[in-house]
Amino acid sequence: MKHKLTIAVSGLNAIDSPGPGIGVIRSLRDCPDFDLRIIGLSYEALEPGVYMHEVVDKSYQIPYPSAGSQELQTRLAYIHDREQLNVVIPTFDAELANFIKLAATLKSWGIATLMPTANQLTALDKMHLHDFGREHNFNVPKTRFIDSLSQVEEIESDFDYPMVVKGKYYEAYIARNREEVAAYFHLLNAKWGLPVVIQKFVKGTEIVIAGLGDGTGRLMGAIPLRKLYITDKGKGWSGVVLEDEALINLTRKFVSASQWQGGFEIEIMRTGEDKFFIMEINPRFPAWVYTTAAAGQNLPAALVKLALGQEVTPYTAYETGKMFVRYAWDLITDIREFQQITTTGEL
Amino acid sequence: MILKKSVAISETGFIFNPATGDSYTVNPIAAEILQLLKAAKSLAEIKQEILQQYDVDEKTLEEDLSDFSSHLQQLGLAEHEA
Q1: What are the tens digits of pLDDT across the range A19-38?
Q2: What structural domains does chain B harbor?
């Protein structure tokens, strides 16, 4: 018998830099065990998922993360009152902290979640990944944080050019000389604030791994993928599933060391000497997560089952060579729908 | 030299290396050689088979086979026998 569930999912921005929501929902809809009503949580009126009625049954706008967890709680209470949510799956990095703060409240309302803890979120962010790597014996590119350009000279003794200059939260640039470091420093400081992150440039092949941890150190599934086409925004527009036990072992070690709870994506650089460097840990599923379901590991469905406290057997096998090719599609809607989501915050 | 077990080769000469995600296309004779390698034939055996089937002088074939096999190794598709 199918399990009747109402699940709220965010990240409906299926745009050129897509959120993971549509991939998560598509995976859930593929699961034969669920009879679903999907509630979309959107930030902007033009997030495509809001208009994809065959994917999302009903959408509600929610306040921007900067409004804080209290505003979010008020809005979720309203949505829950109308929809009786069973599970909520946040899929944006920036919103996670607010949702994590509300985890206990949501639970008391009968809403299940499977998210990392606040400590895990902090320990694996850009600012702390290097320490995590050192503590648990993972290769992470040498990292320094700078608050002023006067520190660049000092850093030059430690780092060769090119070096990577990263924003506190997002964006990264490769700087080939001191002038470029200065230019990117100002750009990233203005956008994301201090400190600015300086990282050793690692040359190699970029690999990403989507995975799921159960919160006790157990890896529930992992799919490694090589992006075959990358857009000018650095987003994968096509990718192929890889076979490499070493990548799965690395992921298992990461989940065991971090006790990670929920979905995640590891960004890896494989050097010419077959050495793996962890470049970043994204604390949520990637936008390409539907490929995990297509390759035989429906990680979003497993997340829902874990969140609901069901017994889930970890995935071990998957189909190598499964590919995704993303595409653009002009969805036709009507100004009345745009008007409705804009004025009422619901569609 | 042995072809890595996981490397997939289609009859049309499409090669996929699932460890790296790289893919290549090769011409029919290269595809035939790859299929023979996949069938665990040695380079010496392959040379004999090709010599029997095609009008090619032995020296040219040896050179081409040697180039091709080092190319396969450079691309991580094949390795020396242990």
Answers
A1: 999 999 999 999 999 999 99
A2: 2-79 (1.10.10)
